[in-house]
Design brief:
- By secondary structure, the protein is α+β, with helices and mostly antiparallel strands.
- The chain contains three helices and three strands.
- A three-stranded antiparallel β-sheet has the order 2-1-3.
- The chain starts with about 35 loop residues before the first strand and ends with a strand.
- About 15% of the residues are buried.
- The N terminus is likely disordered.
- The structure holds L-tyrosinamide.
- The site of L-tyrosinamide has 13 residues, from strand 1, helix 1 and helix 2.
Amino acid sequence: MLDLYAHKLSDDKNDEGDADVLVKPKTRTKRPPLYKVLLLNDDYTPMEFVVIVLERFFGLNHAQAFEIMLTVHKKGVAVVGVFSHEIAETKVAQVMDYARRHQHPLQCTMEKE
Ligand code: TYC
């Protein structure tokens, strides 16, 4: 029989008073930290290239991609997505590699939210 509950039995053989007390384990389920992926402005990367990056690696449609590209262009930086550490790292690596292969100085970074 499964002994789910411990009761103090009158014929307790145990000397210690707390021997039968069950301690409920704390179930603190921490959510994993999230990371913002940031795209940085520069003076040389073509606008169309940035739009392609946002469509290709962040699943944005053309209008969304164009809008975020313009935000980066005007403000210097924008959050382009929020991901787990592993996904954010992958996105940053994909963007940096794609930009490097096309010889554009586009910079992409991540930071804890
Ligand atoms: N500032 C660039 C230009 O005028 C365009 C640009 C936008 C570059 C966003 C990078 O993340 C960027 N060609």
